[in-house]
Each structure stands twice: as C-alpha cells, then as structure tokens.
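Sanity check

After download, print the first record. It should look like this:
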Amino acid sequence: MINQKILIIDDDPDIVEAMRMPLEANAYNVIAANSGKDGLKMAKEEIPDLIILDVMMETDTEGFHVVYELRSEEQASEYKDCKNIPILMITAISQKKDMIFSPEKDDTFLPVNSFIEKPIQPKVLLEKVAELLANKE
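Expected structure tokens:
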C-alpha cells in the first residue's frame, strides 16, 4: 500500500533524517518524534502503520518503556489502538553498553517485531520496513 505512515521515535535529528530520506523516496509518509513521551502521543493520535523506535534517548532504556506502554495488556490502556502496530527497534546499545538482545532469542523479553543495529544501512532499513509491513497485512 502506497503512503503507509511510519513514525520514527529518536532523539537524534541526524538519524531521523538519515531514515526519513530513503523512506520518503520510497513513498512512505514519515512523521517523527524526538522523545518517548512525544512518540507515545503521536502514536496515539496518528495510529501509524509502523513505528521505528530508538532504545536510548533521554535515558538508556526509554525505548523499552515506550514499547511496554504500546504493548500493554491493560484494558484501559490509552494506547490500546496501537497495540498491534509493528515496531522496529533501532539501537547502538550493544556498542555503548555491552548488551545484546534479540527478539529471535527471547521474544518475551521485549515485545518488538525486529531489531536493527546502528549504523543503519538504507537498503537494510527499507527491506526490514517492507517485510514488517507485509507481515502486518
């Protein structure tokens, strides 16, 4: 589907632009938030087709908290309409904090659909986005 909406949540404007350019060149509608708080608000208001989420923003684990809010099982969650939006988590945490995690190894640890390590190659980003959106339909 053309013009699918992708929400990027990342506090680094250079990273956002580096992802925005290839995505928009491939007919995706890109919106961005520079914090977890703003990202949650935009997710609720915009209901994007896909969320690309950084792990480390204001805190080293801010992205994790955003995921847990979006995937909440609570009936009264204000993000219940966002629960099934695919999430692609981007991170440099393994380089900066010596942590390794992957949904393939333990999908109960963090309920995201996929991970990409920074630095992100545009071709890899586009392939992963297309794959996640195809699996959503």
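If your output differs, re-run the checksum step. Summary of this record's structure: Residues 122-136 form the longest helix (15 residues).
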